[in-house]
């Protein structure tokens, strides 16, 4: 059992493809919340297997994309201070803020380091005691426990030169806010697999109960996604929405309790600004009272210029599922992965980057036919 | 960004594990999955094992999928 090859036998997907293809009712709109699912759907050409009545929408599940300019501007300003080392994930480097990006700041002399694991930021703080090391932590519940672990380590080692800039966000209340806004019509949700490995399936129950929308927590193999779509079509047809874990090999209903405890120790939950959506209560992770001594926003003063947004960029509407990338007038012309204007084109898991890479009109053309024909 | 991949634990020393992924060995921190043992599969994300994978559940999923295929052919 390798947990991959066994699930990729072509025979396994056929029953689901036939079942979904036989659907003949009114249009069903299914949102995949997670950017990793968006990429998997495009990479495997799954949209091309769906009948016209089953429509897929991409949601706000790319943490890089939903980080607002004001946080990126702060990271850039912190990086520009002599004696500071700003540490972050590679995905954040090219994301444009109001005036610049971390990659541009680095080219101009700022000390910006890219790490694979947040633990490397602890090592950098130990090796550079005369400098201030700031870890810019971005990510949903999947990633937040890993940065929480670093803060616990920084505290037990009494690292006085270590600071943390949080752009961590929580997914379920953001889905609730999106559904309540009425901006977008959703009949079923493919819930994120690895966020759910941490939080379990219970935090989605309000969606089925209060919004009448089925939720399937699923993995990232084609068979996982097709099974989820088949279940969601069935729930819609039967009028009985529920929360189902289709990714039982990795997700337990209660999630990873140890990781949740670590998050509760280090973070406190507050409101957070999501690009394109605005401020959503209960979705932001800032440092708890016990850990606030590490807070870069509170303890490291920087001057920030007024926030501004890129003219003509539709990332906000795209993150809410209101527009698809080809409906943005910059898509594929002024905004490309090489010269991105908005974050959805920067992150490899951004909706625009996935469309650009896999749509026949712009990219490699390995599937990704769309309801709008781009 | 929530990409996590199945990797097999090949050695374990305290919280530090070596895990194999496609023939390449990586380091993984196991403090989020304290019960993990050598030979187990974990989900690797940002240098951490964020959850252990349940072989029993994976085999059960496969069995159900194969049943669906057989039911279609029959």
Written account of the structure:
The complex is a heterodimer of chains A (374) and B (74). Chain A has helices at 14-21, 35-43, 63-66, 69-80, 102-107, 119-127, 144-156, 172-181, 193-199, 205-211, 222-238, 257-266, 296-299, 315-319, 343-346, 351-358, and strands at 28-34, 54-61, 84-89, 112-115, 132-139, 162-168, 188-191, 214-217, 243-245, 267-274, 278-287. In chain A, the strands form 3 sheets. Chain A has a 5-stranded parallel sheet with strand order 2-1-7-8-9. In chain A, helix 1 runs parallel beside helix 11. Chain A contains 16 helices and 11 strands. Residues 364-374 of chain A have low confidence and may be disordered. Chain A has a single domain (27-298, 311-327), classed as HypD, alpha/beta domain 2 (Rossmann fold). The radius of gyration of chain A is 21 Å and the shape is globular. With 374 residues, chain A is α/β, with parallel strands linked by helices. Chain B contains 1 helix and 5 strands; from the N terminus they run E-E-E-E-E-H. Chain B has a single domain (5-73), classed as SH3 type barrels. The model of chain B has no long low-confidence stretch (mean pLDDT 94). In chain B, 26% of the residues lie in helices and 42% in strands. With 74 residues, chain B is of the alpha+beta class. The longest helix of chain B is centred in the C-terminal third of the chain and has 19 residues, at 55-73. Chain B has a 5-stranded antiparallel sheet with strand order 3-2-1-4-5, with no helix packed on it. Classes of the chains: A alpha/beta (374), B alpha+beta (74).
């Amino acid at each position: 059992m390798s947990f991959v090859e066994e699930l990729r036998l072509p025979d396994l997907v056929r029953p689901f493809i036939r079942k979904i293809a036989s659907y003949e009712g009114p249009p069903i709109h299914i949102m995949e919340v997670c950017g990793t699912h968006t990429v998997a759907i495009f990479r495997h050409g799954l949209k091309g297997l769906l009948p016209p009545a089953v429509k897929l929408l991409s949601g706000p599940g790319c943490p890089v994309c939903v980080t607002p300019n004001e946080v990126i501007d702060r990271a850039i300003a912190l990086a520009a201070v002599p004696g500071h080392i700003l540490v972050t994930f590679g995905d954040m480097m090219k994301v444009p803020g109001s005036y610049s990006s971390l990659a541009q700041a680095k080219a101009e002399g700022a000390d910006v380091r890219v790490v694979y694991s947040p633990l490397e930021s602890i090592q950098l703080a130990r090796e550079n005691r005369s400098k201030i090391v700031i870890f810019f932590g971005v990510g949903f519940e999947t990633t937040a426990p890993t940065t929480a672990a670093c803060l616990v380590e920084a505290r037990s080692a009494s690292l006085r030169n270590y600071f943390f800039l949080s752009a961590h966000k929580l997914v379920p209340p953001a889905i609730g806010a999106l559904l309540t806004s009425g901006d977008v019509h959703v009949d079923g949700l493919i819930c994120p697999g690895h966020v759910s490995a941490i939080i379990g399936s219970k935090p989605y129950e309000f969606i089925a109960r209060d919004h009448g929308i089925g939720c399937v927590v699923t993995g990232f193999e084609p068979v996982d996604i097709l099974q989820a779509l088949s279940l969601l079509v069935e729930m819609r047809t039967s009028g009985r929405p529920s929360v189902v874990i289709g990714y039982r090999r990795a997700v337990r209903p209660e999630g990873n309790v140890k990781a949740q405890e670590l998050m509760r120790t280090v973070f406190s939950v507050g409101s957070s600004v999501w690009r394109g959506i605005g401020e959503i209560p209960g979705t932001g992770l800032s440092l708890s009272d016990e850990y606030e001594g590490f807070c870069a926003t509170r303890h490291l003063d920087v001057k920030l210029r007024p926030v501004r947004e890129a003219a003509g960029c539709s990332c906000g509407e795209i993150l809410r599922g209101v527009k698809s990338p080809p409906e943005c007038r910059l898509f594929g012309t002024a905004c490309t992965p090489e010269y991105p204007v908005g974050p959805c084109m920067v992150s490899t898991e951004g909706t625009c980057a996935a469309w650009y890479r896999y749509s026949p009109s712009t990219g490699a053309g390995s599937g990704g036919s769309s309801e709008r024909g781009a | 960004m929530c990409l996590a991949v199945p990797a097999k634990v090949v050695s374990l020393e305290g919280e530090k594990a070596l895990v194999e992924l496609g023939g390449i060995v990586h380091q993984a921190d196991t403090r989020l999955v304290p019960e993990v043992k050598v030979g187990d599969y974990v989900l690797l994300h940002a240098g951490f094992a964020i959850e252990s994978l349940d072989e029993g559940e994976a085999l059960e999923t496969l069995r159900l999928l194969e049943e669906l295929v057989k039911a279609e052919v029959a």
